[in-house]
Structures are given as structure tokens and as C-alpha cells.
Amino acid sequence: MSSNMREASMLSLPEDENRVADANGWYPIDTAPKDGSWVWVTEDSGTWMDMVRWRNGHWSNFQMSVFHDASHWRPLPQPPITESRENARELFSGRR
Which residue spans within 43-92 are E strands per DSSP? Predict the structure, then answer.
């Protein structure tokens, strides 16, 4: 996947000159948003990944498991574009 396609598929991030992704789109964990946004995290070996958010001073997932060894993060991708999603977008935008 080209970097342009990868960037277009991800949620937009606030501009931050300290955020530099590696070739696979992973950012150092110290640059991750700590505003409650859900993100993917992994650790240096990449043997696990989970969707987490910063809450109460640590990274936690839906089951409230805490991740102390997260080393990298990346934003969640946009949901897939489907006919039902397009119909809902039209309905809520007043185009119908």
C-alpha cells in the first residue's frame, strides 16, 4: 500500500511535527493522543496488537486490561465504504 493510500485510509491526526511514522505506519508511543481516542498499539517485537485508549493514566482496552509495554501506536482506519453506509450518510446529510 502506498503511503498516500495509507494516509487517506486513516483518521486525520492533528498536525504534530514530532510524529514520524515508520515504514509500516507505526508511531512512537510517546506521540500517541491521550484524549481518549481509540488507537492500535503494539510493543517492540510486534507479537501482539490491541485497540486501546489512554484512560486514568494508562493504555487500556475494552475489557479494561492495562498495557504497560506498548511501544508504538497507529490511528484506526476509517470504516469500510458500503452501500448501507453511503445510504446512511445521504439520509443524515439531508440529500435524500
Answer: 49-55, 58-60, 66-67, 72-75
pTM score, whole prediction: 0.63
Its domain, for residue 25, covers 3-93
* Distance separating alpha carbons of residues 26 and 48, to the nearest angstrom: 13
Report the C-alpha gap between 95 and 31 in whole angstroms: 39
Rounded CA separation 6/21 (Å): 11
Counting the structural domains of the chain, the total is: 1
Q: What's the CA dihedral at 25, 37, 83, 4 to 10 degrees?
A: -20
Provide the H-helix boundaries in 1-96. 3-9, 83-93
3-state secondary structure (DSSP) of residue 58: strand
pLDDT tens sequence across 37-91? 999 999 988 888 999 999 999 999 988 888 888 999 999 988 887 777 666 666 6
